[in-house]
Amino acid sequence: MGFYYRHNIHPFTECVKRQETLRSYAESINLPVIYQEGYDLEGFLQKMIFRESKRCSVCYHERLRSTALIAKRGKFNYFSTTLLYSKFQKHDMIRSMGESIGKSVGVPFYYHDFREGWKEGIEESKRLEMYRQQYCGCIYSEKERFFKT
Fold first, then answer.
1. Fewer CB within 10 Å, N or C, the chain?
2. Domain range holding 59?
């Protein structure tokens, strides 16, 4: 079962591109996906104000907590995150936070270092002609991608 968390992806057109890519791929492999409703960019930004230097930890927490709550409602055995696939993410922080959230919500966090398949995943996504994002998704990483000082 997949879950698409969307409140942190900017701009909205990027959010839609990523969702449609997931929808198409999930259908091709018969993967059921829960798609988060709404687009609470304002709520995401309010949580980031004055925490910009810690934005990844705030974002990780929001994503993991939302996923854990979905897992609890769905009576899933575990929850995890696609963040563990990226070599650019902070795995130790994600693992620690996921385990803590899992304990508080009552659904264990499943940790696995999925980076081992990173190169093959990129090659496969290109072969399938999937849309490939060039930044994590938040407005801050979008700025870092396009605005060079």
1. C
2. 2-146
pTM of the model: 0.92
Q: Where are the beta strands (DSSP E) in 9-149?
A: 33-35
Q: How far apart are CA 36 and CA 7, in angstroms?
A: 8
Residue type present at position 67: T
Residue 109 forms beta bridges with which residues?
A: 79
pLDDT 10s digits, 61-119: 999 999 999 999 999 999 999 999 999 999 999 999 999 999 999 999 999 999 998 99
| CA gap 17, 149 in Å, rounded | 28
Q: If you write DSSP's letter for every residue of 50-78 in order, what string do you get?
A: T-GGGHHHHHHHHHHHHHHHHHHHTT-S-
Rounded-to-integer distance, Cα 17 and Cα 130, Å: 10
The number of distinct structural domains making up the chain is: 1
Could you tell me if 145 and 13 are in contact, meaning their C-beta atoms sit under 8 angstroms apart? no
